[in-house]
Amino acid sequence: MPDLAIETHGLTKRFRSQVAVDGLDLAVPEGSVFGFLGPNGSGKTTTIRMLLGLVAATAGDARVLGADMPHHVDSVLPRVGALVEGPAFSPYLSGEANLRRFDAADRHAPRGTRSDRVALALERVGLSHAAKKKVGAYSLGMKQRLGLANALLMRRELLVLDEPTNGLDPQGTREVRSLIRSLADGGTTVFVSSHLLAEVEQVCTHAAVMSVGRLVAQGTLDELRGSGSRVLVRTPDPGRARAVLAELGLPIGETAAGGIRSVMDASGDELVTARLGGSADAAPEAIVAALVNAGVRVRGFEIERASLEQRFVDLTGEGFDVVA
Amino acid sequence: MRARDTGASHRLTRWIPAIVAPIAIGVGVVLVPLQANAAVDLPDLTPAELLEFAASSDVESLSGTIEQRSELGLPDLSGLTGAMGGGGGSGGGTGGGTEDFGDGDGDSGSGSDGDAAASATDLDDLISLATGTHTAKVYLDGSNARLQVLDRLAERNVYLSDEGAWIYDSAEKAATHLTVDQAALDALEAEAQAHHDEARERLEAELGAPLPTPEQLLDEALAKLDQTTDVSVGTDGRVAGREVYELVLEPRDADTLVGEITVAIDGDTGVALAASVTARGADEPAFSVAFTDVSFEAPDAAVFAFTPPEGTEVTEHAVPIPTVEELEQWKAQAEAESQAEAAPGDEAARPVVHGEGWSAVVELPAAGVGGAGFDGEAAAMLGALTERVDGGRILSTSLVTVLITDDGRVFAGAVTADRLLDAAATGR
Amino acid sequence: MSSREANDGPVGVDARVGRSGGAGGGTLSLLGSELLTLFRRRRTWALLGALALIPILIALAVRLSGGPPTGRGPAFLDQITNNGFFVGVTAILVAIPLFLPLTIGVVAGDAIAGEASHGTLRYLLIAPAGRIRLLLVKYAAAAVFCVAATLTVVVVGTLIGWALFPIGPVTLLSGATVGVGDALLRFLAIAAYVTVSLLGLSAIGLFLSTLTTVPVGAMAATAILAVVSQIVGALPQLEWLHPWLFTHYWLGFGDLMRDPIVWDTFGDNALLQAGYLVVFGALAVGRFLTKDVLS
Ligand SMILES: Nc1ncnc2c1ncn2[C@@H]1O[C@H](COP(=O)(O)OP(=O)(O)OP(=O)(O)O)[C@@H](O)[C@H]1O
Ligand SMILES: [Mg+2]
């Protein structure tokens, strides 16, 4: 198992009566691109604040780049670039002046290369032409880009990005994606919190899912998705089909949404679905053979790899209302 | 793995500086003066020895800061004095005052002008002397002296030298120059010395023995003082960072308001560095004056130089120097008058003393100070200061009581109101 | 976007070299950036401009009205027509009770709360600026503003007095007269005295600023405290408290206009302000180190 860039044990944050983060055990491997998912108000930003030493944990502990936080903020944070809950700048200063200011705040950032590094960071996020403009006059996406530039001022071992593509145009989103990929190729661990599952699916190697302050799933993207694949059988003999699938050891009735169920088709055929995985590691062709041998008239057969979105909704519930 | 509660305990430790700093300062504020007062032990002296030591002091040069405080227990006058014109400066260095707020608008608040304002300001000055704190600098060298009263954003100065004296008031922008005829003064001094020597020789011849030495005189004076006052040497202390003896005078007379008078005498040079008067039964002195720092090195000569600045109103005053004959003539005249004291026609002009010692009462006859002498504002202030009693108005402070009878006589003394009323009624 | 460049290029190498660099220079560099930020703000210049208006208005008013009757108005006002140098001192006297504390309140009260309200506080802290280091730099910047504020009043006052009135040797409170050079030095000393007087208030403002994310609240509270302290200082019933008020020596700069100069008040004032600085500095540190940055 590789070293962990971020590791927490029982990390908890309580705001008065409300528990925003509840006993979080996070493990982010070094070199991974880690998607941190969860509905609004599930505690992602609060977790990130604790990881960066902005907020003191009520209980539990966190290690970032191998050192305890928040006791080692001074030695850890220079190696971490971050975007926390959107960008924030002094509106009366230009984009460039803002970056210089944050860079001056880092005592490890060499003064001599400041101008070069600021110019380079602005170029990387495509803001070179707006460098001298006051941030007060920036658009939402421009500010977001400037926030990313701030995270990239120095060579970082870890990037913590809280919703990095918020407000970006499609080109910007694509650029961020390729940026993350290239940074990861260079060995930087990237910890991205996001709601945009498609985006996470495209760039992340690992992910974790938060729900109401608790961690509900964590692992490689394949691990997360794999447990969510389904078998779809279209047949006029649903009863027999169900029996065969159950015989094969595919999970029966484990949840209302995940167990075997049938849906009436327009043609009169029924759609029988079952979740793949569990103890029976049946190959698709073996399932079809078993069905046919049992005399089930198979009119359609499909293995549906569950999308991350489906998995996300499965884990965090269908409800639209924010749980707070 | 770390203990679960590290967060909370860590938070507590981070408050430590915030808790320690005020405590350290508080302890410092309490301990430093304690330290300064600790362990002063000068060689023991009797009161007589102490007085002699003080009298033999030969300090000629000195510079220092004097602080004078009065806590006479006057009624609260803040409302009244606040309404006064902004002229009279109150305590030196005392915090931001309301007057300056008002002045910020270029409007001096009180609308009164001319004489009324002037007399009110004078009264204000008087009251400011009797209440609050004043700081002054003193400079002495062999032949010059300077008193510099530090008012807030103003200053009063008295310069004394062989050529005369300058009094300068920055608030009034007025200077008074007092001159004496130096030749006449020298002549007077020489003549007086001659007279003195002559008298001494005559006396010694008459007595057939030398006159008593100063020590003998002092002993005699102390013995006389002892009849009315308990004189003792108190515990050694520290004034202006110097070790001092404390001479304590306690009136034996039960009628007086004066509880004790203390004088701090520098253990090294014999210079009096502090004095205070405490009312009977009070813990804190009603009046005190003390050096807060002092140095016995000769101040820079420039300190004594004064030339009235441009735009100053200068009043010249030549002080007439009498000859010895004139002096003797005056003395004879005064004696003759005191013989004739009983004559009722003359009485009106002269203060009368009732009783003696600590509980003596001074009576000023009706013409002296009358209620009629005050205009409206000053009268209002007098009304606020005094309190109505049967037969007049009483101004009482912790040390001094003043009675203004309805017929205009004024009685004053370091005594209770009853004693004054008694004196007014019986004339004794 | 060319990310490879950043990871392996010369910048990355320099960054690693820079890590061994001295911390002291880093703090100075942060202070420099903080001052740049402060003095790049239009608001800072508006505050200084308002302060500069005080001597200008005083000089114009005296010039146009031909001078006030002597003995009225603040001390020194009646001297202006004779000597323009007194414009600066009069302006300081007028500015001390309210205008200076107000501007200091704005700058000191904004120090942390302003960053919090912009959200820049979190980015400064994860830079990482270091919480204590950030407080120190913020306080130093407020102190520099105090210098700028008092110098503005004194210098603008002296210049406008120079322009509108005759100037010449200055008569001190003691009655002595000193030459122009000596007088200018004394005005600088007065500026220093007033600056020192404001340091305690700056520390209070900084502490209040760590309590809130609403800068206006901290600013108003700081200015109100200055006024309250002066009112308490004028109440004889609370005389025991007076020597402990941070405003106690605010008008004591007159001691620099004496001959010889009385430095006692300067020392006492500096000691008192240092006490306030230590107490409120420690409170600010305690508060800021334990503060959850949620803005
Ligand atoms: N300052 C605060 N005081 C009280 N509760 C807070 C505070 N900040 C956050 N919370 C609560 O903590 C919970 C988690 O909030 P957090 O900002 O971490 O959510 P999030 O996962 O980042 O949400 P989003 O996706 O909307 O950014 C929420 O219920 C929120 O109400
Ligand atoms: Mg969030």
Automatic annotation (TrEMBL), chain A:
GO terms for molecular function: ATP binding; ATP hydrolysis activity. Pfam families: ABC_tran. Keywords: ATP-binding, Nucleotide-binding, Transport. Residues 6-237 form the ABC transporter domain. It comes from the Bacteria. InterPro entries: AAA+_ATPase, ABC_transporter-like_ATP-bd, ABC_transporter-like_CS, P-loop_NTPase. SMART domains: AAA (SM00382). Gene3D superfamilies: P-loop containing nucleotide triphosphate hydrolases (3.40.50.300). The keyword Disulfide bond does not apply. Belongs to the ABC transporter superfamily. This is ABC transporter ATP-binding protein. The lineage of its organism: Bacteria, Bacillati, Actinomycetota, Actinomycetes, Micrococcales.
UniProtKB/TrEMBL annotation, chain B:
Residues 77-117 are annotated as: Disordered. The chain crosses the membrane at residues 12-34. Residues 82-99 have a biased composition (Gly residues). Keywords: Membrane, Transmembrane, Transmembrane helix. This is DUF2092 domain-containing protein.
UniProtKB/TrEMBL annotation, chain C:
The keyword Transmembrane applies. Keywords: Membrane, Transmembrane, Transmembrane helix. It comes from the Bacteria. The keyword Transmembrane helix applies. The chain crosses the membrane at residues 45-65, 85-113, 134-165, 185-209, 216-235, 270-289. This is ABC transporter permease. The lineage of its organism: Bacteria, Bacillati, Actinomycetota, Actinomycetes, Micrococcales.
